[in-house]
Structures are given as C-alpha cells and as structure tokens.
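Changelog-adjacent note: as of this version, every example in the card shows the full chain rather than a window. The one below runs 161 residues end to end.
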Amino acid sequence: MTYEERIEVLKETAMRKDILIFPEIRAVFAYLCSAATDYHDAANVNSVRLISEFTGLTKYRVRKVINCLRDLGLVERTTCGFPAYEWSSENGKDFTESHPPVNGFGLTKKGFESATYKKADELQEAEYRRWAENTETCVCCGEIIPEGRQVCPRCEKEGSV
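Full-length structure tokens:
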C-alpha cells in the first residue's frame, strides 16, 4: 500500500468513525495518526511546516485545523527532547553532540484512542508483517528460506530464477 493510499484510508476512517466532517481536518488528522504509529518519540511531534508539506495545505490553514483538533481534544502542543550522545571519530577523538528539542503538535490520549489512529496502527502492523514475510520466503515459489537468501535451493537448482 502506498503512502497516498494509506492516507486516503485514514481520511475515510476519520470521516466515518471519528465524525470529522471537513476534508482539511480529516487530512491533517490522518497525517498525524499515520506519523504517530512510528516507534519513536519524535514521530508524535510534527511542526506546522511538516504537516503543511505532507497535506498540501498552507501553514495558515494547518494552524486553523490544528486549533479545531485541539478544541476537540485530539491534538496538543508537545515537545520531544533529544539527549546528548557520545561518539568517537576515526582519529580517536570523542565528541558529545546534543540536539535541540523538537516542538510541534501530536496526538492526545483521546487521539490515540480514536478509530483513525487504531486503523493507522493496524495498517502499520500489516506493513511490518508483510516486510517480515517477504524477507523469509523464496521470491520464486514462496517456500520458507534461511535468512540472507532470496531464492530457495530447489529453485536455484532448477534454474527458475
């Protein structure tokens, strides 16, 4: 499923299950739910600029939509900080690099309980399962194969590659 198809499914869910009537509100909420399914804290912090880029709405319209979603209790202003981490260079010097916090908007508890988020999470899990299944089966016959191979020994011998 492409990203565009996924967003369309989430917009439809937002309209039917979460009763978000206006298309712009559905588009922003679908994007936020899709982004929040990623498994790191920064995925639930989205700037107005980022939302604008992905939805095609102006930053002004995104701010208006965010205010509506905040009034509904689905979205809140949030911050994600990144701790400093240490790394070594090739010449043996150690460096400490910290990053500024990311400010933006993310889902509230009510947003995470919405049908749209649940659908986004279901789609994400299905995508992960599909990736995992594809890496463990032969591309020719579908037989389970050892990790690191793409073709099973039988198909390789038969020359069906």
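Structural remarks: Strands lie at 75-88, 94-107.
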